Amino acid sequence: MVDDENAKCVLPRGATGFFRPSDGPLPETDLATFRTALYAAARAAGGTVGELEKQSYPCTFHTATVVDGSGEFIILCHAHLPWIAFAQERRNWYTEEFLAPPAWSETFGHLGFVVLDRAQLTMPLSGVDTSALSRNEWRAARSYGITTVGGALFNAWV
Fold this sequence. Notes:
Elements: H1 31-45, E1 48-53, E2 61-68, E3 71-78, E4 83-87, E5 98-99, H2 106-110, E6 114-115, H3 118-121, H4 135-143, H5 149-153
Parallel strand pairs: 4-6
Antiparallel strand pairs: 1-2, 2-3, 3-4, 4-5
């Protein structure tokens, strides 16, 4: 995804979690770095880290929580790209159930992550550059009825 609002958003290889073995493995977001960023964000929020659930097949993301004085925040970290999103509840897949990032989410950016906002995540796939996605990725998206960027990124293709 591109940060510059004037540039077209791009979904790179690895965005959907699908890959062909002949293309080699997908990159992996470092779980230790995510954990470090999570604790830094919790400190910035004046809260604590709740649960941290490592990604497991077929999900494409790690899930964590930060609890502060205003409640619990669900944090999604893409398993293959250093992208962060906030959601309303824990699920195995998402389409449009994303929240605006809280003010303390900028802490993730300081540690190399890109925090995606609700507008980016609910953008139609037709509005972004998907040229790096394979036919298999598009076939899966169509068969599961995925039409949004967030749906393609944060999913469990089962």
